[in-house]
Amino acid sequence: MSSFSLPPIYDSPDGGWGPSTSTNFPEEFKFKDIPYAPFAKSDKLGRVADWNDLSADSRQNAGLQSTQSRTGPAGRRRDGAQAFGSGTASAFAYFHVEDESSFSLVDNKPAAPRRGSGFSRGRGGARGAPYAARGTARGGRGGATGRGGSAQRNMASGRRGWRDWEKNNRSRESSVVISPSWQVLEEIEFHRLSKLRLEVDEPDELETYGRIFAYDKTYDRVTTKSERALQLVDRIKYNPTTSDDPVIQQLASKNVATVYTTDIILSVLMCAPRSVYPWDIVIVREGNNLFFDKRDGGPFDTVTVNENAADPPQDPTPPNPNNPSEKASVPEVAAINTATSLSLEATYINQNFGFQTVIETPPPPPVDFANPNPFHGPDETEPLASCGYRYRLFDLGITEDEDLKICVRTEVDAYIPGAGSPREGQGLATIRALNEFDPRAQGAGGAPDWRTKLDSQRGAVVATEMKNNSCKLAKWTVQSVLAGADLMKIGYISRANPRDNARHVILSTTSIRPTDFAAQLNVSLANGWGIVRTVTDLCMKMPEGKYVLVKDPNKPVIRLYAVPADTFAAPEEGSEEEEEEEQE
Q: Where are the compositionally biased (Polar residues) regions (predicted)?
C-alpha cells in the first residue's frame, strides 16, 4: 500500500493570506505550478479567486459570451485588435477530468404544449400560421400587403435590403498593387487624423497662367421644366502631375517652398478621413524638397459617385479562375450602374458641363492671366478649355522661425462678369456637376427623383447629396478655397432616360460660396492642414527616395510605404525593343 504524506505548510507569521515573505521560504516552491498569462495596462482585474464550479455547460456559455462581446451585428467582428493577453484567461480555469461520456439522455424530444397554454395562443404560436397563410392568399393581415409579408416581398421583388449582408461583406481591391518588397513605415487610423489641427494664414500668389472665359448666367435660370441638353464639347484641359509641371520645376530650382503639389492631390489628403474608396499618393523626396504626385490612370483622374452612401454602387464580382464555365455576366441595365461605369459617366459629365457653361464668343471677352497656358505646345491646334492656373504659397510653419512652405497649383474654371477683376483674384469661380443615374437602382442611396423634387424640395435633394457624396463635395470645396474662388457653380444633371448613360440633361444650377459650403459640410480646413503637416513631417524624417501613401481599400487607415526608386517608372521604348529582340 502506498504511503500518504502531507505537504509542508508554510504559514505566515504576520497573519493574512498568502505565503510568508521571509527569506526562509524555499526558492523551489516560489511560483511553482502557477501558469503565466501576459497582461497589459488596459486589462481590468475581475476577481481574485472564483470558487464556483466551472462545468462544461458554464464554460461553453462563458466562451459564447466572450465571443459575442467581440462581435457586432450579424456576427461580424468589430474593427480593432483584441486586447493583449485577453485570450489567456483559460489558463487559470478549473476543468473536470472525469469522463462523462457514459451519460446519455433517454428522450430528447421537446414536450408538446398543452391545449390552452399561453404559448399556443400567442402571436407567434401555432394559431398564427393559418392567419399568415390566409393573409398571403388574399392580401389580408400578415400577408403580402401586411407587416408579416415584408420578408416575402423582399425575396419576391428583390427590393432594397435583400441580401444586405453580402453587399457589406464585399471587399474592394487596392488602388495600387502592394509589392512584397514594399516596407511599411507608418500606419495611421482616421480617428487619429481627425484630431489634428493647424491654422494657416492667407497664401501668397507666385504665378498665374492660362485663360478663362465668362460664366453664362443663363444656366442659373434653368429649371426642371426648362431643362437643357448636355452637349459634347471638344476641348483640351491639362492636368499633369506635380513632377511633370514645368512651372513647379522652375519654382523648385529656386527653393521657394519645401513641398510641391496640386490642389486635386492636396484635397484628397486633406479630406482623407471622409474617403471610403482606395487611393494612393506617390511622394518623392529630393534633398529637402517633397513632391506629392499622382499616378497616370489612378483614382485622381475620375469622379466618384455615392462613395459615402450606406449601400454604395458595387462592381460585379470577377469570375472564379478555378471555374472556367463561370462568367461575370451582368445585365445590360445593371452594367451602366456599376461603380466603375458611374465614375466614368460622372467624369464625362463634369468636364462637358464646365465646357458648356462658359461664353467663348465675346462679349464678355476672355481674361488672360499673366502667362499663357504652360502645357499647351505651339504645334497643337485643338482649342483649349477655359482654365486658369494659380500657383500659391502656403506657410505651414508653427513658429515664426520655422521655414516650411507648400506650393500648390490651383485651378479656376471661369469668372463672373461684373464681380471684379479676375486678374486680381476677384469674381473667380469653379464649376462642378452632380449627376443622377437611377433613383431605383442599387447604390442610389435613397436619393429622391430630381425631376419631381428639385424645384419644390431642393433642400431634401441637397441633404441627400451631402450625405451620399460627402467626400466628393468636401474635396471640391477644399479645391475652391485653395484656388481663392469666390463662387462654386454646381449643376444638377440627370440622364434623359435612366436606361441610357449617354444622353443627359441639365435640370438646375446653384451658386454657393466655398467658405459657406465648407461650414455646411462641416469641413475643417485646419484639420486638413494638420494632416498635411503630419504627413510632411513623417516624410522629412525619412531619407531621400520614393514613398507611397496608400488608403486601405476596406479600412479607415492610411499606410506609408517605402518603395524602390524605379516603382511606377514608365519603361523606355528602347528597352522594350531590346527585350523583344532577345525573345526572338
A: 56-71
